[in-house]
Amino acid sequence: MWKHIFGGGKSTANPQEQPSAIDSIDRTNIPRHVAVVMDGNGRWAKARGLSRSAGHEAGARTLKRIVRAASDMGIEVLTVYAFSTENWKRPPMEVDFLMRLFDSFLQREIEELHAEHVRLRFIGRRDRFGDRFLRRMREAEDLMAGNTGMRFNVAANYGGQDEILRAARSLAARAAAGELSPEEIDEECFSNALDTAGDPPVDLFIRTSGDLRLSNFLLWQSAYAELFFTDTHWPDFTPEELASAVNDFAGRNRRFGGLSADD
Ligand code: FPP
Question: Is 157 a catalytic residue?
Answer without folding.
Answer: no
